[in-house]
Amino acid sequence: MFLESMAHLPVLPAEARRILDLARTDRATARKALAQHSAADQAKLLLETPISRRTALLDLVDQPEEVIPALPAADVCLMARSIGLEEAGWLLSCATDEQLQASVDIDAWDGFVPDQMRLREWLAAFADAGEETMLRATRVIDFEVLVLHLRQRAIVVLKTNEDDWEPPDGGQTIDGVFYFVPRVMGDDMGELLSLIGTLFNNEYWTYFRLAQGAIWEIDVETEEWAYRWRRGRMEDLGFPDPDDARRVYSFIRTANLADLPAPSPVHVRHPSEDLDDEEEDPYLPMTMPPLPTETTGEHAVFRAMAALPDKDRERVRQTFLVLANRVAMADSLPLGEPETLEETVKRAAELTSKGLEHLMAAHGLAGADVLMRVSLERLFQVGHQLTPNKPAKKDEADASS
User: Is the pTM of the predicted complex or chain greater than 0.85?
Assistant: First the structure.
């Protein structure tokens, strides 16, 4: 994969490497070595470990119920997907309500509407985690999302008082009042019935509203409200609004491609940092992969970063990761998939480097000097403009199908 293929990048932190190497011959001792760190330090070590190796390290955590809640919500989603949702029930049982909600917000949507197949996978994972986790999930997933999913999976029939009324064929019921008939023949609705049963046993009036909503609610209005609630939370997590993110593809006139506009630096705040009283800066929603730090790297933008003074290099590095985050939103890539991080960093690096090299050649400047004068977003736009038109990855898949 893109990031791991770079030989000059540290694949593992030294401590993570030591513990994983130890686990090959003595897992018990490796567990004890990891347990010597505090829960917060174990969480930090997990985040510093490449996604492809986190599962192995996570398997050695002795008390996941203390470590997992210390992780950023978006990273829990990535880790669950890395493990495989069919095997991630134990992880989700340790997750906080915020982490459960963020996982669905990040991974179970397709554009402006819920992705029903992915939501189905998450509901199955919550069911596998146990009734307590399923109940917590139903309390934090937007009611509108649950209504849409129930309407998509089943026809809900309300028993009437008519003497000749008969239950619908294939309908399943918990209370003899509402009958749930699968829309697709052969769909056992396992995880859906688990959700319905959990609500019936613990939150009856939510169950009642859900069944009624599946009968009477209008899809378009329900989708609009669901998207509004989710959009606000995504922005709180650090994901920009998709329409705003698409600004990275703004058109630049050919005559202006080599211009040197004023720089527009940005400081990125991490969730662990205190907010300034005057301003709320954007921050990264999840732990991003490390970037090359040598002047001989493959991409011009990383070579130029390496030549910057330490303070400026960190600012530009953070700004680049914000740009990669915006590219992921603009390209409508699946945010819950671990590969998305690598794809977006690679795309951002390629196009930003192309724009950087264009300005370096046009003005005879070193890459570091251009970075101090031109925003990375502008360089990305120039690079995109200089690249022959090619559909985004999602569009390519749609076209091929």
Answer: no
